Automatic annotation (TrEMBL):
Gene Ontology molecular-function annotations: DNA binding; metal ion binding
Coiled-coil intervals: none
Name used for this protein in its record: Unannotated protein
PANTHER family, sorted: TRANSCRIPTIONAL REPRESSOR FRMR (PTHR33677:SF5), TRANSCRIPTIONAL REPRESSOR FRMR-RELATED (PTHR33677)
Species whose genome carries this gene: freshwater metagenome
GO BP: any one term: regulation of DNA-templated transcription
Lineage: unclassified sequences, metagenomes, ecological metagenomes
Pfam families: Trns_repr_metal (PF02583)
Length: 99
């Protein structure tokens, strides 16, 4: 039980600037797509069009989340810090929460 509590309190901040930029671009794209969904709803567009756009938003957000977790796992494994096992466990839990 103590190991689970430790893993819950562990944090990791992604330092890879290239990955951070890629994630930010994806989230900005998702933000724009969400605005499009609102406009489509207000304009009375078809359910098919709206759901297609919503699916694109969901995919963009999920891809950004998976990228964040995988890049963080990679950093954690490369850093070889004393708490890397706990950080890895926390990141794996986050990854599974997206499934």
């Amino acid at each position: 039980m103590a190991a689970k509590e430790v893993a819950r309190d562990v944090t990791h901040i992604l330092e890879d600037k290239e990955q951070l930029d890629a994630i930010a671009r994806r989230m900005k794209r998702a933000h724009g797509q969400m605005g499009a969904v609102v406009r489509m709803l207000e304009e009375g567009r078809t359910c098919e069009d709206i759901v297609t756009q919503m699916a694109a938003v969901g995919k963009a957000i999920n891809t950004a989340a998976f990228t964040l977790i995988s890049a963080s796992l990679k950093e954690c494994l490369e850093e070889d810090k004393s708490n890397s096992a706990a950080v890895t466990a926390k990141l794996q839990k986050l990854f599974l929460s997206l499934a």
